[in-house]
Model the fold of this input.
Amino acid sequence: MKTTEQHIDRLFNKALRQYALVEEGDHILVGLSGGKDSMALLQLLAKRAKVFRPRFTVEAAFIRMTNIPYQNDETYLSDFAQKNDVRLHIVETAFDESTDRRHTHCFLCSWMRRKALFDLANELGCNKIALGHNKDDLMQTALMNLVFVGRFETMQPKMQMDKWPMQIVRPLCLIREADVQAFATAQGYRRQVKNCPYEDASRRTDMKHLISQLEKMNPDFDRSIFRALRL
Done:
């Protein structure tokens, strides 16, 4: 029987090959949030970087959002990055919700964190940013776009940025969230000190419940929606 780590490794390396996510000479910045997905991503990419071909380098960034009351043990994250032979950058940013009433705090927080990540990647000369979106994240995004926007599309495993000279890659795109959780438990990852207070009050949570219902009707729903999305 395959272990959780073997299962994760197989799907991770399949995604790298299938979508050409890592190439010779890449300089990749990993967005490290402290959650299970980003920690697994950092560990897996750092491990893959030690293989002879292709040769690429990995750095990591933790974006500290000063006006959202969630907390991470930054010493733990620094030690985790060091253990994986990866340099960690800690960057501070914030947003003022009163200046933009058109968008929610979740949108503004995500936007500012992403901007800080892009700025750092540009400063470091990185040509790729790796984000920890798993297969469930892609399915949830597809359903949210279908229900609320009227388009059936999702985040791509690899995407060229329009305004930045770099690509976004999502190496966990073939791995289910439950498998990432099992991997995180097996690795003994420490949970965040305090989760974001808004994370359960979102449409994404509704989509999780919807996917659960759809999988009761069709246990292979994840394969069906990926075929429909042509991923």
About this structure: The chain has a mean pLDDT of 89. The helical segments are 4-18, 36-49, 74-83, 105-124, 135-149, 177-187, 203-217, 221-229. DSSP finds eight helices and six strands in the chain.
